[in-house]
Amino acid sequence: MKKSKILFLLTLLLLTLTLFDNYSSKAATGDENIYSIPSSVKNDWNKVWGGKSFSMTSGKDLVYDIYDNKYMEDGYTITTRDFGKGEQKYLRFRGWAVLFGYKKHTPTNQDTFIVAHKVSGSGIGTQKIYKAVQKGLNATEDLEFNNQGSGVWNECPASATNKRNDECNMRYEDTSFDAYLPLDELFKNKYEKASWKLVLVKKVSSNIVYTPLIFPFEFDDRNYNGGKISLSSGFNAKTLRMNSEQVLRRSKPRESASSVTDDLGSDRYFTQNQDYTNVDSDESQTAVWYGVRSPKDKNKTKWAATSYWTFRGDQGSLSYEPPNRPPVAEFSTSPSKIYNDTTITFNNTSSDPDKDKLTYKWQIKPQGTSDSNYTTFSTSKSPTKKLAKGNYTVQLTVSDGKATNSVKHAVIVSNRPPVAAFNTTPTSDIYYNTKITFNNTSSDPDKDKLTYKWEIKPRYTADSEYTTFSTSLTPTKILPKGEYTVQLTVSDGVDSNSYKRAVIVNNSPPVAAFTYSPTTVYNDTTVTFTNGSSDPDKDKLTYKWEYQEPNSTAWTQFSTTTSPTKVLNKKGDWNIRLTANDGEASTSITKKITVGNRPPVAAFTYSPTTVYNDTTVTFTNGSSDPDKDKLTYKWEYQEPNSTAWTQFSTTTSPTKVLNKKGDWNIRLTVNDGTTSTSITKKITVGNRPPVAAFTYSPTTVYNDTTVTFTNGSSDPDKDKLTYQWEYQEPNSTTWTQFSTTTSPTKVLNKKGDWNIRLTVNDGTTSTSVTKKITVGNRPPVAAFTYSPTTVYNDTKVTFTNGSSDPDKDKLTYQWEYQEPNSTAWTQFSTGVSPTKVLNKKGDWNIRLTVNDGTTSTSITKKITVENRTPSVTLSYAPNPLYEGDNVTLTATVIDPDKDKLTVIIEENINGQWKQLKQQNNVVSGGNVIHSMTVSYRDYSIRARAIDPDNATGTATLSFSVNPLKIDGFVKHTPKWEEIHNQKKHPTSYFYSGEKFVLSANVTDHPIEYVIVNFKGIQKNGVELNINQALSGNNPIYNGEIFDTKMSEPTTSLENGNAYFLFTAKWKNGTIKQDLVTIQIIDNVYGVFDFYRSN
């Protein structure tokens, strides 16, 4: 190694030892007692707030640094010390502090204190004060103005106070300190999470000033008591704000001003009140220089001394995160007795002493097996599960995310015995040849596979008599007559169960059967009965034969032989019953035998043989019956050309007039009480010709006259007649049929002599008669209507011709008009039904003349052309309306007669119509427009349209004008809201220094701006005025007001009222205001946490 390098290293080592000795030396007696707190500090430490924002002449310009790496890596450490309370753990950090410009700092006139205020954990609000151990670093040279090297330039007198350093420079000796915070005292509960906010207090002589302690960098956590200690100023710890103007952006600590000027020229200063990010620091001397990222220099690092930087981090917090305690695993199961279909509930009663959120893992394995057999079945808190029979070990593992704990319990799933049961098919009526099915209905609650043993013994004998007859599920068996006990034993492989049931095999009854002959039986027939009965048990049988006569319910025995005979001497249904008996049981069979009837013989004659429709015919009955039964008779006829039969007698030999020509059928039906027989004969009724005759009316006939013909024809046989009516027109020889009705009508539509002929037919023969009728002549008839019936001067009137000619002659027409107030007739048409516009108001005469070529007829009608009332519609825009808007009223007029109109627009004010506008000579379809500015009230508007005939059309409308409003609200930030709620303050109470959160609710209408003017009196008597524009969208606008003056002790707001005047201006020019008054009750330093977080 070169000699020069060795010499440099020795010099550097000597300098380091000298500095360390200087820093470590004790400045004054008592400095080692951190618990020695003067009463003035205890009582008044928080009366005067200070910081870098105060001037050097205020005595409150508290400047400090906390070292990040000076003499101690990473800024702070945990050390064991004894400050009179025995050895314990202390957190130690190092720094320096002065009241810049206040007075000379000596080893004996100054002290530094750290105040800790508990903000989380038990005992929130607790306050601790600790004295820092004074050390020997001087800050004189760091704070000297116009430093010329050795000595102090322009040194202040020893007694000087509150001086700017450009007036004179003061000495700042022994300003460094070691701060010790007793961790065992601050964090007594090893397992409680807690946090303290830190305040730096500087006492120089009797002047005591405090400021929130802020660390301008980030510390790593330290291990303590199994947990973690953190010292932090939060997310913005590295944010520094430039608090002065014309501070050079140096490229390295303590770079000369000329070098900066040469490098940067005129743009060489940091921007006052701009935030920068701390990226480096220089702790080589007492005061720290901070290097920040400079946007003006492409984010290169630029430097300035500590006094120019305001630390923007949060108030420093000393926090403790306790060590984790493992959770406690525990569970139970329900129900206590478990089977393989039981839903088991695993009741989790695990807990965590730290109240951490837990996760769970449930595992199961067969009892007595290796833990490698565990399988996970759930991760829910209290799961349910069904298990097969067996013995298990269930393990619950509980985790709080850092530690786990497990517990095991045995779970036994027990066996349940099977249940034996069966029934038989059939359930009763079992005989020796019956196949018996033993229906096994046994079950097992565990659904185990079962085995079966079926046994049988004679009923009422010892169990030793049982013999096994099957091991199948559902066997069958045939048993001889007798009584038995059948036993089923069921086994699930572990337990068994038996069930017994009696089975009785009964006697089989005989089967009764017989036939008879012959099958056709009359009342003198001998019937033979053949017995076909049998017995399933081959028992000897006895018989009983019985009969039941027709229409009787009584049974009469007629034989006990095997196959007897009998004459059934009464017609009808006989019941024959055979009963077979085997000595124990009997069976009967019944059959019905019908004794039949022989039908009678029908016969008759009639007279006379020649018959007309008024002839009386006599019928002679010749019927008989082979069974000598008494007979009854029914006589019927079928008229000519009919298929319907009609009864006309029940006597033996009746008479009848056959009153209709043609072939009649006569039928005689003979009945012996059971059977009927019929005979039919045909009789022909002869015909006689009809007589034709008629009259007509009226006797005077025209060619549109309806002539009625009255038929007077007749028929000697009273036959129904048909008719044919024919005419022969004048000068014609042709006959034309015009009707077949009895008495028709006809219009003889041609003048002259007509011949009318009637031909009458009775269905066989026709007769005719002819008469002459003469048709005369008549003049036409004039008639018309018109539409519409209401006529105006532009109406096209349609004339509908209703003229006619009685003789149907062809007509010609002449239409004429006579205008109002005129006597002249003017022809306007010769058409049938013309149209015309009667274009003049008044009474018109219309005349129609009709001519049939020989004679004319006229008719005249009056038509009045009427005046029509004009109409008007009224509208307004825009809609909706708000006060200050300009409303446009539009009246649109229509006059059907095209008259020019006078239009008036009016407003109803207190029941009186006030004219807003009148316009004359308005054409139909024209608009009249009126505009006006509206206020907040209801409006009623009317428009009238008047024609020259003074007919008036009217339209009205009403509308309401909405108000424009602004409602202002002054609120707290969430943090301050919480503090005020804890103190149960009214919403109008505020602390000076907290941020005012502003909100305005305005009427949703196009708006130009929303602003707030704040006015309050400061403690220095100056009125503070702030104007703030609010931003947002209708109807909500938001903003904030905050000024650092409100948080400074001398410029904070006085207690009492402060005012917020909310002003909104809408685009229609309307301005509305709302004044909100709040009450200032204190400044923010009257609240426990000594720092601003708004």
From TrEMBL:
Gene Ontology CC: one annotated term: cytoplasmic vesicle
UniProt xrefs under PROSITE patterns: PKD
InterPro entries, per database record: Ig-like_fold, KIAA0319-like, PKD/Chitinase_dom, PKD_dom, PKD_dom_sf
Gene3D superfamilies the record matches: Immunoglobulins (2.60.40.10)
Cleavable signal peptide: 1-27
One family name in Pfam for this protein: PKD
Region (Disordered): 244-267
Transmembrane segments: none
UniProtKB keywords: Signal
Domain PKD: from-to ranges: 510-595, 600-685, 690-775, 780-866
SUPFAM superfamilies found in the cross-reference section: PKD domain
Name under which the protein is recorded: PKD domain-containing protein
